[in-house]
Amino acid sequence: VWRLDGGTLWGTIMKDDPVNLAKTWAFEDAGKRQRVLHPARVAVDPRGAVPKQAVGTSNGAADYTARHWGEVSETSYHRFLLWLEEKMNPVNFNPATWDDFYYVAVSATPKPGEVRPEPKLSPGISMRMNGLPLKNDSNGFVPPIVSDDLLARAKHRFPVYACGYNWLDSNDVAANQLAKRISDIIAANNRGHFTCSQVILVTHSMGGLVARACSELKGMQGSIAGIVHGVMPATGAAVAYRRCKVGMGDEDFKAALVIGMTGREVTAVFAQAPGALQLLPSQAYGTGWLKFDASAARVSPPAGQPANELDEILIVGPMPTPAKPCPYDHIYLRKDRWWGLVREAWLKPDKGIEFTWGDFTRAIKSAKDFHTDITGKYHPNTFVYYGDDGGKQASFESIHWDIKPGL
After folding, report:
1. Phi and psi (nearest 5°) for 57?
2. pTM score of the predicted model
3. N or C, which end of the chain has less CB nearby within 10 Å?
């Protein structure tokens, strides 16, 4: 029910949009979304499109299918996977010819008629890498690449595999499936004159939570050489709360056609999906991310009457939190306040399934348990990067409600 292959939309060729999903889901109601996009009713589909061209260690489509590329979005990931396969497995085994790495040196000009000999890389040379900055975010110097590392890498092959997972289901479930996939990959590459004992994981977004949970499973840290996390919601994301309240219509129109334009549509799927709920800000996210501004609407209670909870928070600034912040009880499970995560009525859309507040409570408790299990836990060899687009795409650090008179 959910596959991101390239295709056409209303007669126009679209290579980077969720085309088939937009066709399928743009006009569906909350009830159908809840019935179909249920974690127990969907499974990873391995039949997605795969590239045809031979790159690196791959001879074409059959190899990509065997490496599970059909499980992940063609329009989102295949261009990157092909680039990674090519970069990690250059045709020439001589690292002195790899364009991404260089050092300044002087060599003799060949005599007329002579062919310049093939360059040779010696050990012990400090090298630079294209795109690698001289300083990191903390203004410290980035360690250079040493030629010894490239000489060692030249003796290895790095076939690129993919691993799709059911993002509606708990990331714990996906972590166990990833562990099995890792074991299978190691076994498949540990035969003949090849040896293999570890993999490197490269993750995107929620995939980082899956990989972190996987690395905590018994025996898995030794099977993972290291993990590279890209734009991971390490302690959750405030935007997950926002989407349950107002949908994605004003955030990303194309994605909203699929995920849900309104809070009602998003909630119908989100509230029943452990994986989605695990994207919410956890107890480690910090306090004060939910803010209220009622400076234009503040009304003092009549003389002699105690202020209720809403009166107390109608000020500019963060919502008051208990001594030990607990977003689960204080925000997500508040059905007696409009700023709680979901409206109870939205849990039961027309033509949906029977999903009660008790079911939602258990789902939130499960998300809390997952957050607790992975808080502060990372593989010893972990590298993390976020967007580098000059600030063009800001993320939601906090949610700020503007409360207007009459609402």
Report:
1. -90, 0
2. 0.88
3. C
